[in-house]
Amino acid sequence: MIHSLSGVAAIEPLLEFCVFLRGGAGRIVQEKIARRYFVSGMVQGVGYRFFATRLAERLGVAGWVKNLADGRVEVYAIATRETLKDFRLELERAPRGAMVEDVREEDAQVDPEFARRFTIEHDRW
């Protein structure tokens, strides 16, 4: 279904993933996107997943974090492009006791199942 919002046509399901901000003479639409981050270094057993969860909550990022069998931590994040830039910078800093060697970033599809909150997930290795 198509609606008109202040002269901007939008498809209803996409509205859930957009943030509308007032700007200048009209409205600017910032779409939420998804990214996957693969964090390597000393990042397991040091509270990194809890650090990522608190960070996501503070910045308004949805998604999840989990340990991988190879010793890395995977973070799936949904937010605006600008918020994700800030999120990645903080992921690189790490909590006390952790040591991040590298953060690899990949584009991802927005998964509506994880678009409302940030959780710690567990894989069965």
Feature tags:
125 residues, alpha+beta, Alpha-Beta Plaits, two-stranded antiparallel sheet, 23% helix, globular
Cα(first) to Cα(last) distance is 43 Å
> Class in CATH?
Alpha Beta
**CATH topology-level name:** Alpha-Beta Plaits
Structural class: alpha+beta
Explain the overall architecture:
- With 125 residues, the protein is an alpha+beta fold.
- The protein has one domain: Alpha-Beta Plaits, CATH 3.30.70.
- Helices cover 23% and strands 46% of the residues.
- It contains three helices and eight strands; from the N terminus they run ββαββαββαββ.
- The chain has helices spanning 12-15, 48-59, 81-93, and strands at residues 2-5, 8-11, 18-23, 26-42, 62-67, 73-80, 99-108, 118-120.
- Strands 3, 4, 5, 6, 7 and 8 form a six-stranded mixed β-sheet that branches.
- Strand 3 (18-23) and strand 4 form a beta hairpin.
- Helix 2 runs antiparallel to helix 3 (81-93).
- The longest helix is centred in the last third of the chain and has 13 residues, at 81-93.
- The chain is globular and about 35 Å long.
Walk me through the topology.
Blueprint: E1 2-5, E2 8-11, H1 12-15, E3 18-23, E4 26-42, H2 48-59, E5 62-67, E6 73-80, H3 81-93, E7 99-108, E8 118-120
Parallel strand pairs: 5-8
Antiparallel strand pairs: 1-2, 3-4, 4-6, 4-7, 5-6
Describe, in short, the structure shown:
The protein has helices spanning 12-15, 48-59, 81-93, and strands at 2-5, 8-11, 18-23, 26-42, 62-67, 73-80, 99-108, 118-120. It is α+β, with helices and mostly antiparallel strands.
